Amino acid sequence: MAEILMLFYIPIIYVSLFLDVIEGLIKACDTDVDCQKKYPGPFEHLLKCIHGYCVCFPRNPGDSSGYPI
Prior knowledge:
The chain is 45% helix and 20% strand. It is built from 2 helices and 3 strands; from the N terminus they run ααβββ. Residues 1-54 form the Late nodulin domain.
């Protein structure tokens, strides 16, 4: 019974890893406008496109730590 489950379990893991790699190769944005279209909502933070990924920056000029969305 356990061998039958492993027949299904292992391919599911490999397919999910493959999809993660494919998704990581696709850039999330090209411009800042792409980030605003992808993540609409209240703009309490600045959305910037940096190296193909959307990064969120607080509007407080004293806090310069950005974190990816």
